[in-house]
Amino acid sequence: MLNFFRITAILEGISYLALFAVTMPLKYLAGLPMPNKYVGYAHGVLFITYIILAVVLWMEKKWSIKKGIILLVASLLPFATFYVEKKYLSENTAQA
């Protein structure tokens, strides 16, 4: 389950960046709304999956409140899910 969460964290970060850096400019500058719609749907699903998995793993692994809050806040900030994946979810640090 931890590996699935790691993959979800990376994909959520990629979809967040794609939404803001690629599809929103296409929508507002080039008048192409469809890419934004589909990437937005994908990002929404990944965001909800990330939040659910973060809470489930937080309870299951009995992680500290600090770590749980960091995992949840990371979903709101660009690039933060990459940081969380590297710092808190890698094989070496996920045990604590």
TrEMBL record:
Chain ranges passing through the membrane: 7-26, 38-59, 68-84
Annotated compartments: Cell membrane
Signal sequence region: none
DUF3817 domain ranges (all copies): 2-88
A GO CC annotation given for this chain: plasma membrane
Stored InterPro entries: DUF3817_TM (IPR023845)
Protein name: DUF3817 domain-containing protein
